[in-house]
Amino acid sequence: MLKRIVVTALVLVSTAVASAGEKYSDGRPAATLRLDAKDHGIVLRYGDGPDKCDILGARDVWVFEADGTYYMHYDASGPKGWLSSLAVSKDLLTWKKKGPILDFGKPGEDDAKSAAYGVTYYDGKQWHMFYLGTPNVTAAPNLIPGFPYLTMKAKGKGPAGPWTKQKDVTPFRTKPNTYYSITASPGQVVKNGDEYLQFFSSTTRKPGNRCVQRTLGIARTKNLDGPWTVDPKPMVPIEEQIENSALYYEKTNQTWFLFTNHIGIDGGEYTDAIWVYWSKDLNKWDPANKAVVLDGENCNWSKKCIGLPSVVQMGKKLALFYDAPGGQSVSHMKRHVGLAWLTLPLSPPRRENAKAKNQPMIVAHRGASRDAPENTIPAFKLAWEQGADAIEGDFLLTKDQQIVCIHDKGTKRLAGENLSVSKSTLAELRQLDVGLRHGEKYKGAVIPTIAEVFATVPKTKKIYIEIKCGVEIIPALLEQIEKSGLEPEQIVVICFNAKVLEALKAKTPRYKTSWLASVKKNKSGKFTPSLEKVLETLKRIKADGFSSSHGGIDEAFIKGIMKNGFDHHVWTVDDLKTAQRFKQWGSKSITTNIPGYMKNRLWGQSPNSE
Fold first, then answer.
1. Would you say 364 and 386 are in contact if contact means Cβ atoms under 8 Å apart?
2. What's the pLDDT tens digit per position in 12-49?
3. Are the C-beta atoms of 302 and 330 separated by less than 8 Å?
4. Rounded-to-integer distance, Cα 150 and Cα 569, Å
5. DSSP output for 123-152
6. Phi-psi category of 271—alpha, beta or left, where left has phi over 0 and alpha has psi -120 to 50?
7. Are 359 and 84 in contact (CB under 8 A)?
8. Do residues 154 and 111 make contact, with C-beta atoms less than 8 angstroms apart?
9. Cys bridge to 144: 138, 206, 246, 385, which one at CB 3.0-4.6 A?
């Protein structure tokens, strides 16, 4: 598993700018479809395991159910190294840690330095565990297991053990000049006809490649305590860069779904997403049939690094467990275990939806503000009718600590009468008519509260919340978001004041943030702010993206933003040619006053089509 690679194996490569449409700088395949899981967040934190067993991290999970109890094997990183440990639960949300279930092997044995990642299988009589052993680790204190990764065997009388190592059983080993020459570590076991299949993790190095290549292989046996035969070819090509396996069979469409970890590259390599492959035949897998399930786009708390998956069914939902370090970190250490959900039954995503996934989101600037009075409920409702993917609104705090949707700090431009928002109560502000200036049709429109704006947002859409004041708004804002019923993935907070976003992230990392700035070229042709300054700010405030004006910025600047793991957004674009240019450059969203027109022309579809 990548998470256990020694420092010498974690190859850092120079990052080249990817060509248009290429996600990874070295050309490794990308998944163009999505089967999005709904993230719950952290359910097991590292640090409080028995005898400090996970004081340095909790990761690499395997979750299974037996007699109404859920069992989690996770790699506990303690002072002496990494060992598979046990936690139990009745609801998948609250876990009780029991401590290590395996110990280190004797000096010279294959698991002398680590006995981790315990994958289980119950044959109706005996519990079997296939675990990862290695004789190599990095220096203390991290003691990260290193190559080779080897599959080893243990048995137990029950799902909680105790587990007895079977040193006389050698399932399979690494083999020179094969796709599993460096690692042959355990994966899920499935009974298929009269034989057992194990989808194991394999690694090799192709001549001329600076990075190792990873994929899954299939090993076969008819005796779980005997040797396994490894297929001569991997499940999918080694260029896929995946490792670890978790399978689910969907009876309604007779399809197997295999969840796995994808390895991305950005300066260095790290686990960047959970992918899923699907097939109706366990022996035949098409590398084109894959989709992203969880990454920084839909994970609430870890925006760059997502680790090893495990799945277990609970009623009409499929629980997806994973590990992650949180924020923008890609560290092997100090990881927690998270949980996300998929609704059953599962169906492969339709390829015709890929076009939509590759399109920039159309964000309605202050609603459909060309056709209706800005920042009003009529403008936001009209934006949804016109097919907007998201709305953007400006928000200020009133004298009585209410949040209202208005751009200016005073009301003169919109209502004729000049009231200061911060010095007026909500009741005073609601007496003003902010619609009449847009025509008799909108006479009587009032300044809405943030709760009223939230109430317009459909379940599949988003809202960009632009904070127009300071950090004093944060407590009330978080309270209103929690009351709204909106999911974290529907929320993006934007602001010109970087300190506001930094303070928000310090309170909670659940919501995506994007720093706003107008990019210009000075007389000497240099950008202000510079790309270096923007990246430094984004990293310091732990933002997820950068929102820029459309004038003065160029493709290289935007690619520099995205190459460093941040989304790019652009405002406010009402010209189709300009929008097409930012679409080609890869901007995540385009904010516009005319969402209906832009959605129709840029996406090439009618405003209300899905």
1. yes
2. 232 333 333 347 888 889 998 899 999 999 999 999 99
3. no
4. 45
5. -SS-EEEEEEEES-B-STTT--B-SPEEEE
6. beta
7. no
8. no
9. 138
pLDDT at 187 over 90: yes
d(CA 473, CA 450): 12
- Minimal CA–CA distance to 37: which of 339, 280, 302, 324? 339
Residue type, 602: L
Higher pLDDT, 406 or 524: 406
Q: Tell me the C-alpha distance between 391 and 279, whole Å.
A: 38
Answering whether pTM is above 0.85, one says no
Q: Are 86 and 50 in contact (CB under 8 A)?
A: no
- SS3 of 39-95: EEEEEECCCCCHHHCCCCEEEEEEEEEECCEEEEEEEEEECCEEEEEEEEECCCCCC
pLDDT of residue 551: 86
What is the structure's pLDDT at 352? 53
The number of residues in the chain equals: 610
The single-letter code of the amino acid at 592 is T
In 429-566, which ranges are E strands?
462-467, 491-495, 512-517, 520-521, 527-528, 545-549
Residue 284 token pair:
């035949």
Residue entry with tokens 């490569």:
13
- Check if the beta carbon of residue 283 is closer than 8 Å to that of residue 308: no
Q: How far apart are CA 260 and CA 188, in angstroms?
A: 11
Which pLDDT value is given to residue 357?
58
Bridge partners, residue 493, by sequence: 465, 513
Instruction: State the pLDDT at residue 1.
Output: 42
Helix 498-507 to helix 531-541 angle (10° resolution) is: 30
Percentage of the chain with pLDDT > 90?
85
Does the structure show a pLDDT above 90 at 110?
yes
Using left for φ > 0, alpha for ψ between -120 and 50, and beta otherwise, residue 255 falls in beta
pLDDT at site 206: 86
Distance CA 496, CA 467 (A): 8
CA 84 – CA 92 distance, rounded (Å)? 19
Give whole-number Cα distances, 30 to 10, 20, 130, in Å.
Answer: 20, 13, 30
Radius of gyration of the chain (CA): 26
Report the alpha-carbon angle 263-265-266, nearest 5: 145
- Are 366 and 43 a contacting pair, CB within 8 Å? no
Mean pLDDT of 353-364: 75
Closest among 241, 219, 215 to 232, alpha carbons compared: 219
CB 505 within 8 A of CB 326: no
Q: What is the pLDDT of residues 198-217, one digit of tens each?
A: 999 999 998 888 899 999 99
Confidence of residue 7 (pLDDT cuts 50, 70, 90): very low
Rounded to whole angstroms, the Cα distance separating 169 from 150 reads 12
Q: How confident is the model at residue 356 (pLDDT cuts 50, 70, 90)?
A: low
Residue 434 has pLDDT above 80, yes or no: yes
